[in-house]
Amino acid sequence: MGFRHHLPNRREALLGAGSLFAWSQMPRLARAEGRDPRLLVIVLRGALDGLGAVAPVGDPDWIGLRSDRALVLDGKTPALPLDSFFALNPAMPNLYRLYKAQQATIVHATATPYRERSHFDGQDVLESGMARPGAVDTGWLNRALVELASDGQVDLRGSRALGVGAVTPLVVRGKAPVMSWVPQKLLAASEDTQARLLDLYQHTDPKLAVALQARVRLAALGGTGGMDAPAPGELPEFGIARLRAYVAETAGTAARVLAKPDGPRVGAASFVGWDTHINEGAASGQLANLLGALDVALAAIETNMRDAWRETVVAVVTEFGRTARINGTNGTDHGTGTVALLVGGALRGGRVIADWPGLKQAQLYEDRDLKPTTDLRAMLKGLLRDHLRVDERALASTVFPESADVTPTSGLVG
Amino acid sequence: MSSSAKAEAVLALHRFGMGPRPGSIAAIGADPRGALIAELERSSPSQIALPGLSSAKAFRAVNDANAKRQAKAILARKEQDAKTQQMAQAPAMTEGSTPGAGEMAAKMAAEAVPDPGRQIYLEEARIRTEAAFGAEIGFAERLVWFWSNHFCVSADKIRSMSGAYEREAIRPHVLGRFVDLLLAAEGHPAMLFYLDQTVSMGTNSIAGMNRTRGLNENLAREILELHTLGVRSGYTQDDVIAFANVLTGWTLVPPGDNPEHGGEFIFNPRLHEPGAQKVLGKSYEDETVEQGRAVLRDLAAHPATATHVATKLARHFVADAPPPALVERMTKVFVDTEGDLKEVARAMVKSDEAWTQPASKLKRPSEWVVGMVRATGITQADPKRFTDGQALLGEPLWRPPSPKGFPDDEGSWIDGVGRRLDVANNFAERVSDRVDPQDVIETVLGSSVSAEVMQAVGRAESRQQALALLFMSPEFQRR
């Protein structure tokens, strides 16, 4: 009778701080419910054309807007019908399969509170969770993790979030330590060299010590040192092949680490290249290639999460959308409303959530962009509340400041 | 040399230069600030030699190779298809005919044509890296790197020109006037290609009316947001559109059409939106290419540009949050001298605030790697190894993730420190037979390392480990 404590096993005890890290990062309340949720946030930098990813084929103004570049159900590469109104870009068969299995949800005509058109300010708002751009050095996901720990029972020294890439995405930066992992490897330094350097840093530069420590832990989890990585110097080629390989490897490895029983529960990665100003190629071309790479990555995550997939949510978000009309160079310029994609076994999926604004001239935002009708923060708050069990008051204050009037979306998971 | 003079020399080399080399501390120890300024006076960053490799020529070479590859592929597919058909007509052979054989043959024929783009990229990387290795202090080279990142293009989009762009548009002006740098960068074919300007045409231009294509806002927006005024400095969406109209016609000569001038800048009046345009409240008459130059000249002289540029320079060299007094002084010099970049750089190193900040900036991977190599006295670069290393560290040469360039703050890079250890470890392994760690500490760093570093190096189990620890020490990571 009574509480069941997680007692560190021998290996965890040997790892010292690692043992604390191993269980401390599980969202406590969710765990009390017998769940062990995982969350991976993927930021698409450059602004994804939401209309090119998920087309409103049932809107009477759709074809008029994009003419022969509009995705349609009876096109040369037919779009995949999601419901009677929306259809998915044909480059994403895995997402379509997950959607049909109720393991994917699409939010359309959504945007952050940012209403200008700078990528970099837009990404700052998306990742910082602030209501407007400005000087920020922490991200909403990291602050949400700090909130999970606010009762003082967890140790912030333990790395709880995983940032994938050589440059840490803002969304996971902050007080809660971050491990980072870079796909592509070369001969790793020995454990002894690592330990000596860590000792040096602990005596001379605590910040560097924290950063190095995270990597030592990650190595212990098997996130580095894999045999499947390319040999030193064997960098993938330029272009779409490089992107596809990079995206799949990055996402797949993030999933492998998140799936470990003693791995981190929350991760973030970002992919660049979505700024399709010229020859966008939604049906076959640039955007189709990018979405295809993302689709392969989603499948890699599903596979590599194994049993943990049923407790996983992957949230794919971007800074803003693109112009509703095609621009002068067969592409689209910076816009506003776009889509957000959720996939994962924990979802109550199989639906498109949208308060559709329409595509008539007067219905477009500033006569050029898809008008945002759903605040992206509503979805993220709903996810953090119901999936990770972040306190709702904290969500409205510290995680997404000035968002008290943005009601968390209910029923996304469960 | 007193220990404080030595410390200032070390700081000068790390903060404003490419890092100490054997002998460099002694060379500048008497007057580090004066040595930095003297280097600006005698440097001519534009004189790094690569005879015969202009951006236009490189662009044409890659274009020609692509055309050749396509031609070979078509020919090979035709031949294979003919063969397959012959085989199909001989009944006994039908089972042997493979579908897709034509595609395969085409692919193989295409791959047999060498790609000059990669070789050009590596050659450009080599001369740039060797300029950094060979510089006395490297202040001028650091300025080249800074401005090249400020006005970045990406080799992912235009590999052939990425190195030549830096030599042609950036290097000649980093110690000149900002307006000339701006005009050179925005008018360079690599920039026009990178930010989609080459295909932008005015809706009411001759070409626009004939072809139903039109405007692309990309270059105009990034000039305002990233290259000059800075984000949230007051311009509007209408300003972006008007400026994009002004810039229509700025394009390059198609490489296939012109064996002598293909890939060079050209103003094509057929693409240009006719009429006056109002940008930031001022009306610009249509004077073809001069309309765009007039807007750029006004942007260069705008006070917001001075603040933006001075802040970014101070942040890059001195501190993530640079002292306001330093930024103000540099801004004032920028305004007073009408954007004389040598004077702005001089004002920076003459300011006490630039020296009193603790060494808290984390070097970017590129700076750190070059600093590590310089400390060993190596002056020759293996460009393949070098560019691979930079890519592993998240800062692939001339391939920034976006037009904003690589970030400049600690938060972006610190989690990559574990990866740096792997790179340091590999490098240490390669040089440990000829580089002595104690020697590096004494002769290169003038023994100005902490007792802890001294101890860690002294107790290391091997020379390789000692070198890796030394290269990873805060003394090498921060400036």
Proportion of strand residues of chain A: 5-15%
- The share of residues in helices of chain B is 55-70%
Number of helices of chain A: 14
The total count of helices of chain B amounts to: 26
Q: How many whole angstroms does the radius of gyration of chain B measure?
A: 26 Å
Total E-strand runs of chain A:
12
* Mass-distribution shape of chain B: flat
Low-confidence stretches of chain A: 1-25, 151-159, 223-238
Stated plainly, the CATH topology of the largest domain in chain A is called Alkaline Phosphatase, subunit A
Determine the strand fraction of chain B and express it as a percent band: under 5%
Report mean pLDDT of chain A, rounded to a whole number.
82
Task: Give a written overview of the molecule.
The complex is a heterodimer of chains A (414) and B (479). By secondary structure, chain A is an alpha/beta fold. Chain A has 2 domains: 336 residues, Alkaline Phosphatase, subunit A (3-Layer(aba) Sandwich), CATH 3.40.720; 41 residues, no CATH class. Chain A is built from 14 helices and 12 strands. In chain A, strands 1, 5, 6, 7, 8, 9, 10, 11 and 12 form a 9-stranded mixed β-sheet that branches. A 3-stranded antiparallel β-sheet of chain A has the order 2-4-3. Chain A is globular, with a radius of gyration of 21 Å. The N terminus of chain A is likely disordered. Chain B is mostly helical. Chain B has a domain of 116 residues. Helix content of chain B is 61%, strand content 3%. Chain B has a two-stranded antiparallel ribbon with strand order 1-2. A two-stranded antiparallel sheet of chain B has the order 3-4. In chain B, a hairpin with a 2-residue loop joins strand 3 and strand 4. The longest helix of chain B has 35 residues. The two termini of chain B are 21 Å apart. About 1% of the residues of chain B have low confidence.
